[in-house]
Amino acid sequence: MCGIAGFLGEGGRSDLERMTRRLTHRGPDAEGFFVAAQHGLHLGHRRLSIIDLASGAQPMATADGRHVIVFNGEIYNHPELRADLEARGCVFQTDHSDTEVLLHAYREYGEAFVERLNGMWALAIWDTEKRRLFLSRDRFGKKPLYWFHRDGVFAFASELTALLEHPKAPRSVSRLAILKFFAHALIPAPHSAVEGIWKLPAGHNLVLAQGAAPVIKRYWRYELVEDASLARRSDESLAEELRELLDRAVQRRLMADVPLGVFLSGGIDSSAVAALAARHLGVGNLRTFSIGFSEPTFDESAYSRRAAEFIGTNHASEQLDLDTACEVLPAIFDLLDEPQGDNSLLPTWLLSRFTRRHVTVALGGDGADELFAGYDTFRGLHQAETYARWMPRPLHHALRALAGLLPVSHANLSFDFKMKKGLGGVSHPAPLWNAAWLGALGPDELARVFGGPVDLEEVYSEAIEIWDTCPQPDLLHRTLQFYTEIYLQDGILAKVDRASMMHGLEARSPFLDRDVADFARRLPGHCKLRNRTSKYLLKKALEPLLPADILYRKKKGFGTPVGAWFRTGRLAPSSTAAVVQKRLARHQSGRTDDRLFLWCQLTLDEWLKRRKASGGFV
Question: CB neighbours of 320 closer than 8 A, spacing ≥ 6?
Fold first, then answer.
């Protein structure tokens, strides 16, 4: 796990060193550089040593020097790929480096080699003979990759702040991206917070021939297409196959030359990963870690202890409260390269810091909710569809206003919060529902807050495209497609990547294994959501591994009590804009619940303040 940076065109080694050293937290163990001044090529790498500690240094070149790579990630099927490549005559210089496997695979199979990979990656390969740069990002976007092409310079980096170290980098905030940020509580790819800097979307490659414009192509999409052969099989048969696929996915991710553990919240997903890991490592040999809260409705520590005792892990936990939050938030914002709308960034950062004191790699349960319909949103889809079909539209506004009179509660997933978000979303056109349910501002609020006309089709373009292009045009599958393509990539995975890598901790996600994901996307919808039971097949698959009080308990989610914290006044955005101060005052008085807006505004304010201080941002 590492940080990568580089550019083709104007610039020197000092520019590369500044870019690369901005990524030191991602790779604290070593740094490396490759410069081909005659071509204007510069590649930099920061290393977190996980696999082949002795011979896996980067940038890495083929024996003849034709191809050079910088790579961030892990390839879990690299032993099988290595064996295949050796059978084809490839000669390896390293003992078991997955980086060298990528070099030989690119040479043997061309750009299509990424379709053979099972893992997470952001990589760049330079072909000296063709003078061509090839970039790729993994299927779900586990590893970040930003780029810009401007004034004859193409540059890329793992994080936005590293890219801003190049003197040719754009430095203006993107109004459209900030609108999207408040509309979704994330910035969907390919947009970034800076105008003219882009994210390479998940499942895409980028090719740049020297002197030409970048060419971007999608090589994979999580496409939901129900497989008739799976629909004919029994629940028991499907559950057994899913359990076997998950077991192999976890086993692959136990590969490491450094200490390893598991994030354990006590929920279904992390408990499943811990139970399967313990089967391979042996009872008492697995370390698990969790974070608790002083606020009872957010605290899951009792469940994590219950799961740890049942599985037989060596468990440790730490608690988060408002004092701790105020203490650590400045350190988080110092390294945060882009505004993040998910306030669970805070406990994820704390959990990663705590975990990194003991291990270098941690497995988690990310991806299961998106693949198997685990969120409360999925359980409410039928009611939302019924409401939209039968409730006359003129009554929508009145019912929203009525719901607004419900007393405000800052408890985790409280009734009033879900009711207000639900009615607020469904009062808009159906393609906007999912974004409106997640976002900090509704479609009807954006123009009022931003003080000018807003093109809603442009702001919600990604959500609309997914709605229009989903192969199975029912509400469940359209919602699953939205969550996997947008919320998972630019919400969940971005949060976990930044929080873990701020401490040089590698986070792995067995549920996003290539084989598990392919199985999940082909499952019938009723295997995921059945009679308001979410994750139906996953729960059935895990029955031999976990107790019923873990499997079938009510979902809490990894929330943070920022609603209550904002009311104390110790947590607040720094913006003096009238609209922000008005919303803060209403929230503090208890008249409204603006926790999502206030958190997004807080992270935006802190990000802007630090970027202006460090780089002359405009």
Answer: 291, 292, 293, 294, 346, 347, 350, 560
Q: Supply φ then ψ for residue 554, to 5 degrees.
A: -65, 135
Which of 558, 556, 570, 617 minimizes the C-alpha distance to 598?
A: 570
Identify the CA nearest to 90 among candidates 107, 65, 112, 68.
107
Tens-place pLDDT, residues 541-600:
999 999 999 998 876 666 788 888 899 888 999 999 999 999 999 999 988 889 999 999
| 272 and 131 in a common domain | no
Instruction: Name the region of 185 (left: φ>0; alpha: ψ -120 to 50; beta: rest).
Output: left
Name the residue type at position 72: N
Residue 497: give the domain boundaries.
Answer: 228-373+493-551
Give the DSSP H or E segment for 126.
strand 119-127
- As a whole number of Å, the CA-based R_g of the chain is 24
Within this chain, do residues 288 and 203 fall inside the same structural domain, yes or no? no
Q: Is the pLDDT of residue 340 over 90?
A: yes
One domain for residues 153 and 269: no
Torsions phi, psi of 2, nearest 5? -155, -175
Burial zone of 210 (CB within 10 Å; 0-12 exposed, 13-18 middle, 19+ buried): middle
